[in-house]
Design goal:
Layout lengths: L3 H7 L8 H18 L6 H11 L1 E2 L3 E3 L3 E3 L5 E3 L3 E3 L3 E4 L4 E3 L3 E3 L4 E3 L1 E2 L4 H5 L4 E2 L2 E3 L4 E2 L4 E2 L4 E2 L4 E2 L4 E2 L7 E4 L4 E5 L1
Parallel strand pairs: 1-4, 2-5, 3-6, 4-7, 5-8, 6-9, 7-12, 8-13, 9-14, 12-15, 13-16, 14-17, 16-18
Antiparallel strand pairs: 10-11, 18-19
Helix pairs in contact: 2-3
Length: 183
């Protein structure tokens, strides 16, 4: 029988109140609390905390405050920057490529709930992975919804709600986010 964590990562319905998952979320909360309350000049300490939380392939900088569910489902590439107020609900995998910039208050969600209210009330949850390509700039206040793939060389305009995949080499903006021109 699969664990609730295995179900969660497979994108199946799972129980978020499972003891293992609660413990792992609490660990992530402790690390993000420590990160968010570290003095601004303690850059090395901040980086060490984040490296215990997320998978990092190269240079990166994340401004506090930063929040996530588990941390271990987040993988970021080389030369990554997230401005103030980044939230990543990493119930499933979040893979971010190289040379990615997140403006303030960008939110990335993998977590979702059933549309059927009976299933929702019963506590069912599931998640879909998010992939962000290389050389991407995501404008302030953007929300990226579960299951979305953003291609390479993309600019997402501020305040967008990305509900569907965005192809390579475009500028996209709006709610819902739509391509407005090619690059």
């Amino acid at each position: 029988m699969r664990s609730e964590k295995e179900k969660m990562l497979a994108g199946d319905f799972y129980n978020a109140n499972d003891k293992e998952l609660v413990r792992e979320r609490e660990y992530a909360r402790e690390l993000t609390f420590e990160f968010n309350n570290t003095r601004p000049g303690e850059k090395r300490k901040k980086e060490e905390i984040l490296r215990r939380l997320i998978t990092v392939k190269g240079s990166f900088y994340i401004e506090a405050p930063f929040h996530c569910d588990y941390g271990y489902n987040i993988e970021i590439g080389e030369n990554f920057y997230a401005n103030f107020g980044c939230v990543i609900l990493d119930v499933n995998k979040v893979k971010i490529g190289d040379n990615v910039l997140l403006a303030p208050n960008v939110q990335i969600y993998t977590a979702t709930h059933p549309i059927d209210p009976k299933e929702r009330i019963a506590g069912k949850e599931f998640a879909k992975p998010v992939v962000i390509g290389n050389n991407v700039w995501i404008g302030g206040g953007t929300i990226i919804c579960p299951g979305v793939r953003i291609g390479d060389n993309v600019t997402i305009g501020a305040g967008s709600v990305v509900t569907k995949d965005i192809p390579n080499n475009v500028v996209a903006v709006g709610n819902p986010c739509k391509v407005i021109r090619e690059i």
